């Protein structure tokens, strides 16, 4: 039997995610051959050229053609996701699109139409589902009976991405911590609850840290590059929500780029009729992490630890790549990513609507302070 030919990939967007997450993992993976990389920014192309002198570097996705590529891995700023993916899909190139896949339900419609028009598959970045600790949580959750409630939280001690850049400008990012971290959290729900519609969504947002550079994510561009004075911006650094599915399962959501916590914490509690499973870990690449992932199962007053393998930071991205060739080849993948994305983007839209309907509370300043 001959080994399947490698998937010929173009990496589109050569910023932090393209350069640090995808290029190295794709290049070392035996099932992929990176055939080109695309970025309109000459500096981004020059940085990649220095590290990968053999790679063809292009300035625009128009230079890619379906004959030479089996997949485009797209990691461009959020506001360009829909239009870049739409162009590639309609040109007949399958797309793996980073989160947030889209910034509105209208963009989801456009992507679904492009997938049909190009007759190719759209796949979505869903890294958290590929973590070993989250996979184990899914297994344990099957023993919990009917799931009544899920708590989802990702609370960074500090980690506002690229303060002053596009991440903190709503027009380009689509939102702050909710769109960035909340997307990952909501994405973990599908394997737990199925692709659910939310019947009710309420929420609040706040921005107490986003204008202060001291809370920036130093790991993204190096300590020196973090904007020392704070770039400001017009997005939230924290979002809190309460969501109820059509069949009455509730979900509480907390996404924070910065907080007064000492360490970054991601916590998922799944409460079922027959017990509660609780995972405490740290998603993503931030260095200020929990020492290790801890999963426990509580039933009738007894809490037992569920053993978890230790895995290096970022293993979930490689694991998702392992699955991509089969997903690309499977006709059942067509339309699935968009179907799963719709409840996520609808929940985000409605949480923002709810947050906008409240009058902001001014910070109270005590006399003499
Ligand atoms: N899955 C994850 O854990 C994860 C982690 C980080 C970032 N991301 C996502 O990846 C995306 C990129 O984030 P980032 O941190 O790398 O941002 P970044 O600003 O560092 O990089 C974005 C790059 O895209 C390029 N670009 C802009 N327009 C383009 C176009 N038309 N064609 C090709 N390239 C274009 C920019 O020049 C830049 O080099 C975002 O959507 C972000 O949410 C996902």
Automatic annotation (TrEMBL):
InterPro entries cross-referenced by the UniProt entry: Gfo/Idh/MocA-like_OxRdtase_N, Gfo/Idh/MocA_Oxidoreductases, GFO_IDH_MocA-like_dom, NAD(P)-bd_dom_sf
Protein name: Putative dehydrogenase
GO molecular function: nucleotide binding
SUPFAM superfamilies for this protein: Glyceraldehyde-3-phosphate dehydrogenase-like, C-terminal domain, NAD(P)-binding Rossmann-fold domains
Domain Gfo/Idh/MocA-like oxidoreductase N-terminal: 7-123
Domain GFO/IDH/MocA-like oxidoreductase: 143-277
Classification via Gene3D superfamilies: Dihydrodipicolinate Reductase, domain 2 (3.30.360.10), NAD(P)-binding Rossmann-like Domain (3.40.50.720)
Lineage: Bacteria, Bacillati, Actinomycetota, Actinomycetes, Frankiales
Top-rank taxon, per record: Bacteria
């Amino acid at each position: 039997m001959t080994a399947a030919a490698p998937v010929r990939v173009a990496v589109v967007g050569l910023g932090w995610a393209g350069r640090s997450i995808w290029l190295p993992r794709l290049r070392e993976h035996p099932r992929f051959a990176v055939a080109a990389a695309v970025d309109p920014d000459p500096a981004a192309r020059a940085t990649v050229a220095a590290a990968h002198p053999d790679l063809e570097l292009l300035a625009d996705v128009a230079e890619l053609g379906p004959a030479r590529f089996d997949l485009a891995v797209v990691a461009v700023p959020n506001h360009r996701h829909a239009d870049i993916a739409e162009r590639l899909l309609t040109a007949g190139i399958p797309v793996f699109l980073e989160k947030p896949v889209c910034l509105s339900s209208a963009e989801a419609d456009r992507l679904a139409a492009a997938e049909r028009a190009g007759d190719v598959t759209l796949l979505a970045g869903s890294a958290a589902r590929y973590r070993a600790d989250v996979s184990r949580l899914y297994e344990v959750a099957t023993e919990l009976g009917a799931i009544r409630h899920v708590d989802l939280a990702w609370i960074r001690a500090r980690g506002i991405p690229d303060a002053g850049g596009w991440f903190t400008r709503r027009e380009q990012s689509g939102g702050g911590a909710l769109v960035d971290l909340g997307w990952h959290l909501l994405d973990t729900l599908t394997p737990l609850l199925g692709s659910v519609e939310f019947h009710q969504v309420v929420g609040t947002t706040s921005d107490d840290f986003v204008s202060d550079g001291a809370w920036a994510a130093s790991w993204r561009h190096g300590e020196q590059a973090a904007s020392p004075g704070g770039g400001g911006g017009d997005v939230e650094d924290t979002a809190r929500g309460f969501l109820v599915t059509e069949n009455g399962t509730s979900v509480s959501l907390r996404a924070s780029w910065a907080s007064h916590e000492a360490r970054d914490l991601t916590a998922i509690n799944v409460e079922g009729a027959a017990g509660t499973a609780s995972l405490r870990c740290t998603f993503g690449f931030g260095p200020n992490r929990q020492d290790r992932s801890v999963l426990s199962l509580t039933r009738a007053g007894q809490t037992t630890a569920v053993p978890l393998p230790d895995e290096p930071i970022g293993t979930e991205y490689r694991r998702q790549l392992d699955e991509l060739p089969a997903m690309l080849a499977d006709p059942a993948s067509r339309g699935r990513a968009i179907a799963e994305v719709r409840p996520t983007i609808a929940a985000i839209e409605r949480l923002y609507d709810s947050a906008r309907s409240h009058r902001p509370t001014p910070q109270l300043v005590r006399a003499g302070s």
